[in-house]
Design brief:
alpha/beta, TIM Barrel
Length: about 260
């Protein structure tokens, strides 16, 4: 089993930085790995990435000690199991409505006695090679494989204190755009209603010893979120960053050609 470097850093109190990944390209993952990020979120919700491709991308990320998370596309047992068995070090879960959704996620993703995850010796456990005694294996996997539901709905926000207190929930990731839309303030992260929601999620995480992550579209917001007390953020999407770089290249060259 590969080490979860993000867990190690977070437990030391260090901040972590990641990005979203849409291109389904192993070569692009090499570039992300070389950049020095802490984690990458392979996005099966918004990008056309199959399970087999996701596992290949997980493998590529591991070669750079880049912690591979996966944003699953739905709350289902198969979505959870196939990615964890494939070696994902954490699941980022979108569109969570409230505690009932989270209870299902804990059941699917955590081994006994916390959940009821089905047992399989996939590549995430080196196919069972040198596996620990079963109970010790469960403890290790429950600790190293993170379950991080996203707060991006009003229902989640209404129950965030209860969710943060649940065994099996390792942290909460705020999707600020969708959350601001749910609050009737689309894209207005400076609005007091949205700011209060951010603080509420953060306080619930701190009170229960859970990790707090958030998407930061730019460095200015990243600094603001860090100063608020978030443990880390994700920024950018690989294909958007590629487009931005080429737009700048074309602009610069058109000015001299």
């Amino acid at each position: 089993m590969k080490k979860n470097y993000v867990v190690e850093k977070l437990r030391k109190g260090e901040k972590v930085l990641g990005t979203f990944f849409h291109t389904a390209s192993g070569l692009a993952m090499d570039a992300v790995g070389l950049a020095g990020l802490d984690f990458v979120i392979i996005d099966k919700e918004h990008a056309p990435i199959a399970v087999e491709t996701a596992v290949d991308l997980i493998r590529a990320a591991e070669g750079y000690n880049l912690t591979p998370f996966v944003r699953i596309k739905e709350i289902s047992r198969s979505s959870v199991l196939r990615l964890l068995d494939g070696g994902a070090k954490g699941l980022i879960v979108p569109a969570v409505g409230g505690t009932e959704d989270v209870k299902k996620l804990v059941e699917y993703s955590k081994y006994l006695p916390i959940g009821n995850r089905g047992m399989a010796m996939g590549r995430g456990t080196d196919f069972g090679l040198n596996t620990l005694p079963l109970e010790d294996h469960w403890v290790l996997m429950n600790r190293e494989s993170l379950l991080i539901p996203m707060c991006e709905t009003q229902g989640f926000l209404n129950q965030v204190e209860e969710i943060a207190a649940m065994a099996g929930v390792d942290g909460i990731f705020i999707g600020p755009c969708d959350l601001s839309i749910a609050l009737g303030k689309p894209g207005n992260f400076a609005d007091e209603t949205v700011q209060a929601a951010f603080r509420r999620v953060l306080a619930a995480c701190k009170a229960n010893g859970k990790f707090s992550l958030i998407y930061a579209p730019n460095v200015t917001l990243g600094k603001e979120f860090s100063e608020m007390g978030f443990d880390g953020c994700a920024s950018g999407i690989d294909v958007n960053l590629l487009l931005s770089a080429y737009l700048h290249l074309v602009k610069d060259f058109r000015a001299v050609l």
